[in-house]
Design brief:
This protein is α/β, with parallel strands linked by helices. It contains 8 helices and 7 strands; from the N terminus they run αββαααββαβααββα. The strands form 2 sheets. Strands 3-2-5-7-6 form a 5-stranded mixed β-sheet, with helices on both faces. Strands 1-4 form a two-stranded antiparallel sheet.
């Protein structure tokens, strides 16, 4: 059932064009690439970030900011299509060694005393399309505009997964949820975490997190992750 609903969502997202020709006020191109328009492309990106169909029953959802460059996704897609089987899918996921993935997995394992790891979590983003170019510069993406454009698709993912706990990485995912579910947050992520370390809604709990590579002590970040497990 969830697979079918997720298929329908991907089909709906494939028709969206709100962010494919965005420009900033100074004329800077911040257009995104809709990864759902090409047949089966988005279903064949072997990454912990895009392993959606194997995680639809997860009790925990992580919402990051955006997928990053399209070229990175295209490279993974090309590798998988050379040998499209489960073994290669798992191998390519395992080969990913990004600092973000490593630290997230560390915080989840450490806080749960090794009962859970990153493989147990559904991961998505506030911005559903991919960046142009090859990097994560802040000036080649319209964060607030694209976050607002994608909010209805994020809501539908939450409705499909039905997580017990949602972890937001950074400010924009939390901003998106605050507008959708009508709750207040502080003007900065730091103040929100200090004043509202857990946001309790009717159907799930939101635990706002710093991005794992932020210049915040591990011990401070770990306190937030430890809040997860009393709800699981």
């Amino acid at each position: 059932m969830k697979n079918t609903l997720f298929d329908e969502l991907i089909n709906e997202m494939s028709k969206c064009s709100k962010c494919i020709s965005l420009k900033k006020k100074d004329g800077k191109d911040c257009s995104l690439i809709n990864i759902y328009q090409v047949d089966e492309f988005c279903k064949n990106i072997p990454s912990v970030w895009t392993d959606w169909y194997n995680r639809l029953d997860s009790k925990i959802m992580i919402i990051g900011q955006d997928w990053g460059p399209y070229n990175d996704m295209k490279r993974l897609n090309d590798h998988y299509r050379k040998k499209p089987n489960k073994e290669n899918w798992n191998y390519l996921i395992e080969q990913e060694k990004s600092t973000t993935k490593r630290l997230l997995d560390y915080f989840v394992r450490e806080s749960s005393k090794n009962k859970y790891n990153l493989d147990d979590i559904f991961i998505t983003n506030a911005i559903m399309c991919a960046r142009k170019g090859n990097n994560y510069r802040g000036d080649n993406i319209g964060l607030k505009k694209s976050t607002n454009n994608c909010s209805k698709y994020l809501l539908k993912q939450i409705d499909i997964i039905k997580p017990k706990v949602i972890l937001t990485l950074g400010y924009y995912p939390l901003l998106s949820l605050s507008k959708t579910y009508k709750f207040n947050i502080e003007k900065t992520l730091k103040d929100t975490i200090n004043n509202n370390p857990e946001i309790i809604l009717d159907d799930f709990i939101i635990i706002p997190l710093y991005h794992p590579v932020a210049q915040i002590k591990k011990s401070e970040q770990l306190k937030q992750y430890q809040r997860i497990w009393k709800y699981i």
